[in-house]
Amino acid sequence: MREAPTAPDPPDVPLAALYRAGLAESVHRGRYAVCDAGGGLLDSGGETGEPVWVRSSAKPFQALPLVVSGAAGALGLTDEELVVACGSHGGEEAHVATVRSILGKAGLSEEALQSGAHPPLNGAASRALARAGGSPRPVHGNCSGKHAGMLALCSYRGWETASYLDRDHPVQREILGAVSRMCGLDEREVLIGGDGCGAPAFALPLRSLAAGFARLASCAAPEPFGAAADRVRRAMGGHPFMVAGTGRLDTRLMQGAEFVCKSGAEGIFTAGLPDGTGLAIKVSDGSGRALEPAALSLLGRLGAEPLPEPDTVVRDLHGAEVGSLGTLV
Amino acid sequence: MREAPTAPDPPDVPLAALYRAGLAESVHRGRYAVCDAGGGLLDSGGETGEPVWVRSSAKPFQALPLVVSGAAGALGLTDEELVVACGSHGGEEAHVATVRSILGKAGLSEEALQSGAHPPLNGAASRALARAGGSPRPVHGNCSGKHAGMLALCSYRGWETASYLDRDHPVQREILGAVSRMCGLDEREVLIGGDGCGAPAFALPLRSLAAGFARLASCAAPEPFGAAADRVRRAMGGHPFMVAGTGRLDTRLMQGAEFVCKSGAEGIFTAGLPDGTGLAIKVSDGSGRALEPAALSLLGRLGAEPLPEPDTVVRDLHGAEVGSLGTLV
Q: Structural domains in chain A?
């Protein structure tokens, strides 16, 4: 663990601001890249060539080895199961059941999950679990679908599962290959750290991430990922609930839309449009609340539709309007 | 409600960063001012002359009319009761009992509180309330002490209580006077908006806020607030639990220390040292997590002691170290 010797100060641009009584209270800065599937940078704000931690936006790429290996087909995984493996779910009943179903088809029990426990991100699911006297288990965590997918591939390949999170485990080697190839990078250009769930996290240039989503969304994935990427794209588009859940950003944005999108921790948002345009946003301070106004504005600029109306009003505890959250991009 | 016509982009400086595997993942920028009780700017980072919403850091000033009016004395308010009126409490049992005690001494019931309901900020208290089948009521909200103090002053003065949150209600006029005078400003220089609890929120220059805390902490408050400020300062120093609660920043920092401090929503932190130095920090993006590393660093530079060791390690769900949170100031 080494700290940067100097203050990091990436050139970025204002993305969104919270206003109270018309006076800006807080401002979120960040960077964004719009790329085509060839990796060309079509539009950008701030610096997009330096590595950023892409967190859960890598999940659709991390699920590709499950498909391209033949495991998803051989195990009979449904589209819903594939999407929960690409998603950061809210721990709602249907999410948990779908994760369990993946494990069941792989011949594994819930105990195989090493994704760590946290309460369901969905508030109602979290309260229901507490009311029932239950404690959060790994299956309730937002990454349990990703982990179930990794385990299913291990099971299909006959790899041992106890060490499936090790960077040198074959499942993680295959995943690194998929993430790198989809983003047009050599494996050695992708930095690896630890994610909150214990799985490897990846850092790579924001523009490479945008190009990866352009490829995912437009049948332009490099071989051998072409057909697998196409199945993932169609599955995500058909089952946005499994990407996130009730009321959450990715699910709301994809409802009825033609594009796929996936957000990640610390202010990451990615989207791929069917015309072969990819978008990646990093909020410099890691804020999640800046993502919706910034994503809606940039997606709108790219012609993505339909898009929900932004909810910009900030209310006090009595429901009275005290401010607004506005885009600056 | 008017939005700023141009992107707000205050000159600020890096305050803190989150590192993952040695690579900066997120960076928090902000501004800080160190002032003496005369209003002189001793040190600063970024722009400190433009108005910022000071949120709950105004609470110790908002409590002054309760004391200077004679209400606190006549009603027999204890130091704990005075401090919970200056604090943003966690809704723990002792906090709630203390707020109720203020109301009882004022001859008012809990129903008089118009502070809005939210679950206790303290996690254990919130879970205990849910387990007991209770719903959050206004008394559990972090601002209920401030509201109880306002109501106690109304009761003592014989002012009607139904409209105590109106900006033109005499209790709010007295509070605006106290906030302005303590910060060395004319009332017309203080912008007013709505806070989350429904009470007026104030925006004023960061350097004026720092000077206000310098006056509070060093017997340098302008008359007629001298004796009242001295009681508030001593009471806060003696009862840091009532300022915030178990494990929370202000309480931890003030434990055994000589200074007083008060943080506020959207990344505000203020402190006053007995040598007559005041500190005010505004995290530009409103992040709370940047406050502890920035405050510890700046307080240390001012010679405040004792200070707790910063907890800089970022862990995954398994407890493994995956990063760190470091100060940049």
A: 2-327 (3.40.710)
